[in-house]
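Hi F.,

I've been meaning to write this up properly since the lab meeting, where we talked about keeping a consistent format for the predictions we share between groups. The idea is simple: the sequence comes first, exactly as it goes in, then the structure tokens exactly as they come out, then a line or two of notes. No screenshots and no reformatting. I'm using this chain as the first example so we have something concrete to point to.
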Amino acid sequence: MLTNVFQLLPLDIRSLLERMPQEPLESLEEIRIREDRPLEISCGGESRFVAADGCLVQEPDGAYRPSAEHCRKLLEKITNYSLYAMEEELRRGYITVAGGHRIGLAGRTILEGGAVRGIRDIGGFNIRIARERIGAASFLMPKLMDRNRDRVFSSLLLAPPQQGKTTLVRDIARSLSYGFWKGGDTGRRRGRKVGIVDERSEIAACVRGVPTFDVGPRSDVMDACPKAEGMMMLLRSMSPEVLIADEIGRPEDGAAITEASHAGVSVIATAHAFDLSDARGRPELKKLLEQGAFSQIVELRRTREGVMHRVIQLQMRGSPQGSLDSGNGWSSLAGEQLMRAGTP
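Output, unedited:
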């Protein structure tokens, strides 16, 4: 899983990370490389600095500091030695590499007409490790089914960054496509035709249009395509029963989701928000909630004890009807399927 990432790294940094203890290496979530600043990794929901001998330390003093040459070599590798060919990715501030791993970039922006055209003098990289967790969504699958109408509830998954939304929605796509409703063959129902709009190539991690992650036998993927255009293309050409998209929030996303809901297609999407209240503070999400585009909200929260979830059913115009779970609505995820570390 880490092979695609490690082969991009300068040899010195790769050697350091390979000397890390096995446990943090297996739960690695992020590698943060900043020019002339301490090398940082994130694993198990906590951050550590990497010392020159590969040991992990709490404080930045004594941590290994990547040089400008390291950053130059890394940028050359992830752009395949052609910055021009990656102009669109640089404008968006990230590059997705083989395996679905996303590399965020920080540096000096290039402006054109007041809009960002690209980034230069790049001195900061955040490598987010994508992990396939088969069964991550098993806790949620029974709650996605509207048994009265034999269809999937349109659902919006909410959480701040690095809580595992992409990993979860990937496994939802797989489970829907196979017809797994309880995490295994015992809970099988009719599989659904799933359309995945994978704008960042993270959900399916396609290579030449073919998914490298298991997203199911009935899933069609529109790879590296803007979400709004991708949803409309899938609606017109692939007759999906369920559309899946990651990190919605733009006006055009909302228009496409509204069109899908009017066409009788269920939509499962993720968005950055701490909770339903925060989501209502984002204009496009508020509009979708008020229009009744989603039947339920799934809030994800990461704690020291693991990842918690709460499912909230919605009435028309987005008003809460109540939680599907008992007590205060929060339940821990079954087992450790969703990642101890909430990886993307």
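Notes:
The chain has two domains: 3-128, 141-332.
The longest helix spans residues 165-178.

If this format works for you, I'll send the rest the same way.

G.
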